[in-house]
Specification:
- It is found in: Cytoplasm; Membrane.
- Its main location: cytoplasm.
- One of its GO terms (biological process) is retrograde transport, endosome to Golgi.
- By secondary structure, the chain is mainly alpha-helical.
- Among the domains are: about 160 residues, no CATH class; about 120 residues, Phox-like domain (PX Domain).
- It is built from 19 helices and eight strands.
- Helix 15 runs parallel beside helix 16, helix 15 packs antiparallel against helix 19 and helix 17 packs antiparallel against helix 18.
């Protein structure tokens, strides 16, 4: 019901007389615009938003399924590079299928909505696109649930491909998808700010590796009109040409950065028995001649707890959660959640290896380099974890100057602690806002692509739309052709805008966002260290001191009574007094030693805390480096967009505005 009690459907038409019936083939159907409008209030779309079955994705649904040979032939004909093709190849494929604009948008939306796999299209996603095309050609509504129903008998699409695209026999490499994982190796070194390389593994889906290290220093920027050899570190986007036949470049969202040293990859196959299967992670260290190791999430938890027990007052990095509750539902196997957890585990290992003390810990070294399963290693090793303070000598650990100036240091520590919670909150809010802007940027690019597809439809229909004016004059001066050329050129530029927007979105995702999350995680680890410090510093020294004082008073009274009774003849009483005096002296001596040990332990803990906060000061410039890199990237993409629309302006200038 509307505000005035009327049925809303009655006012859908312009004059309120009848509802508008939208055809599936209507090129100006704005349903996709309505779907994207919600992104201004929320972050990313979920499978439920796209009407996808729970747990399905374009990159996963046909993993391990034998597909028709035409799927493989068409993929190789598209010219994959490093195991994937760009979105331009997908658009070419859709154009060869003779589908309506609405059908093409639906298929492209399903494939490109799988954001966790990046914007490159793997062979898994390509196979899904082929199946969706075949379903659309058969008159069905393309969807993943139909593909799931027809896995055993996938439909064959009809495409306008040359005969040379088909092979009589498949290559030996064309096996089922996702059989085993491969480790990504970066492409040639490039001074680009956040370089992304394309994975060699075509079958990983979400199993893209992410490498992490302390934030790199920014590189100087060059204008886009600089040397053609290296204007932006050999960035492919700098070669955009409005009239080029080459497809617009498509970026990587989750590719590794060249300055990263830790590789953590989600293994494609879960381990364990039915109903108790779990995700495992492959860990590899860049530049280290050590074997790759496989660990599960519970192994990370064990390492974290062991380090907390061994180093309670050290900055032990925080772990990402095992589960996340959203609207009452726990997400532990959701693809996007698994990707976030993988990145969190990468930050955990990276910060461990960057710590001067924790990086030399035997448990950490074993965890990242011993290929043996962790549970097996723990059973075969006599592991006894004790606090680090038990191994330290007070005289050689704590300098005298620290004790002398403790009041000054204590004031500085309290100042740091008081500002910690606000800093964590501000970093978390900044990450959330940047992620929201980043998501809007990506969807703005998608909307530009939708506009481009409509402009192509307008260009193809103008000849029929304005056929009366041309028939009356009896001649056509080529105005419609030039208008059509301008529309096509505009559509190409808008497609290029989408590619640049998605590429910039990916650069933010693995660049400034990951840098800020690393800083936030480090501050969270410091906050947890302060909580452990409060527990570790607590002791019973006041109780021991009161007991020593009480025993000393009793001892003094006994000694006085003993001196008075020496002149007496009661030998048994004197013996009892002497025995009690000896017992009290031992108690006082033991308590005094215990107090001294506790005082030394307290100073060692305080000194460790101070040294950890001193180590924290090394990260004060991380925010500067992150924002500098982000600023250079924004200038870079702004120049690319300026060049793109400058080409558009010159192209549309040739479009006629009258018949004169």
């Amino acid at each position: 019901m509307s505000l005035f009690g009327e049925d809303q459907d009655a006012s859908d038409s312009l004059f309120g007389s009848m509802p508008i019936q939208r055809s599936r083939d209507n090129p100006i159907d704005d349903s996709d615009v309505q779907q994207v409008s919600g992104v201004w209030a929320q972050s990313t779309a979920t499978n439920a938003d796209l009407n996808l079955p729970e747990g399905y994705s374009a990159a996963k649904i046909l993993q391990g399924v034998k597909v028709p040979q035409i799927y493989i032939d068409a993929y190789h004909f598209a010219g994959p590079v490093d195991g994937s093709v760009n979105t331009g190849a997908l658009r070419d494929l859709l154009s060869k299928a003779h589908l309506s604009v609405d059908q093409m948008d639906t298929i492209e939306g399903i494939i490109l909505s799988d954001r966790h796999a990046g914007s490159r299209i793997t062979q898994n996603s390509w196979n899904t696109a082929m199946a969706l095309i075949a379903l659309a050609q058969q008159g069905d509504t393309p969807s993943l649930d139909l593909i799931e129903m027809r896995k055993s008998n996938l439909p064959i699409p009809h495409l306008d491909l040359p005969s040379s695209a088909f092979r009589l026999k498949p290559d030996a490499n064309d096996s089922e998808i996702g059989q085993k994982i491969q480790i990504t190796t970066p492409l040639s070194k490039s001074p680009e700010l956040h370089t992304r390389s394309i994975s060699n593994n075509t079958n990983k889906g979400t199993n893209t590796s992410y490498r992490s290290e302390p934030i790199a220093a920014p590189r100087p920027i060059r204008p886009s009109g600089a040397s053609a050899l290296d204007p932006w570190g050999s960035d492919r986007l700098s070669s955009l040409s409005l009239h080029s036949d080459q497809s617009f470049p498509t970026p990587m969202l989750d590719g590794p950065r060249d300055d990263d040293t830790v590789f953590i990859t989600v293994m494609p196959e879960k381990e364990g028995v039915f109903l108790f299967r779990h995700v495992t992670y492959l860990i590899e260290l860049k530049g280290v001649n050590k074997p790759k190791v496989v660990r599960r999430y519970s192994d990370f938890v064990w390492l974290f707890e062991a380090l907390i027990k061994r180093y309670p007052c050290r900055i032990v990095p925080v772990l990402p959660p095992k589960k996340l509750q959203v609207n009452g539902h726990y997400l532990s196997s959701d693809i996007k959640f698994l990707e976030r957890r993988r990145r969190g585990l990468t930050r955990f290992v990276t910060q461990l290896l960057a710590h001067p003390i924790l990086s030399r810990e035997t448990l950490v070294t074993m965890f990242v380099s011993t290929p043996t399963e962790l549970s097996t290693w723990r059973k075969s090793t006599d592991l006894h974890i004790v606090e680090e303070y038990e191994d330290k000598n007070f005289d050689t650990t704590v300098p005298e100057s620290f004790i002398t100036n403790w009041s000054t240091y204590e004031s500085l520590i309290e100042t740091t602690r008081a500002s910690l919670n606000d800093a964590i909150a501000y970093y978390a809010q900044t990450c959330k806002l940047l992620d929201r802007i980043n998501t809007r940027k990506m969807h703005i690019g998608i909307d530009h692509h939708h506009i481009a597809s409509r402009l192509r439809y307008i260009a193809s229909s103008n000849q029929q739309l304005y056929c009366i004016s041309t028939s009356e004059t009896g001649q056509d001066g080529g105005e419609l052709e030039r208008i059509a050329d301008g529309l096509i050129s505009t559509a190409k530029v808008l497609d290029g805008f989408q590619s640049i927007s998605v590429d910039e979105s990916g650069a933010w995702d693995i660049g400034v966002l990951e840098d800020l999350k690393r800083i936030k995680d480090n501050l969270l680890a410091v906050a947890e260290m302060f909580q452990r410090f409060d527990k570790a510093i607590a002791n019973n020294i006041p109780q021991l001191e009161r007991r020593v004082e009480s025993n000393e008073n009793r001892l003094r009274r006994l000694m006085e009574s003993s001196s008075h009774s020496e002149s007496g003849s009661n030998g048994n009483a004197n013996a009892k007094i002497a025995s009690e005096i000896s017992r009290l002296q031992k108690l006082i001596e033991n308590d005094t030693k215990q107090i001294a040990l506790l005082v030394e332990r307290e100073w060692i803990i305080k000194y460790n805390l101070f040294k950890e906060l001193d180590f924290l000061q090394n990260s004060e410039f991380d925010i500067s480096k992150a924002l500098q890199n982000w600023a250079w990237e924004r200038v870079k993409y702004a120049e690319l967009l300026a060049d793109t629309f400058r080409n558009l302006a010159s192209s549309v200038q040739s479009m006629p505005i009258s018949r004169e």
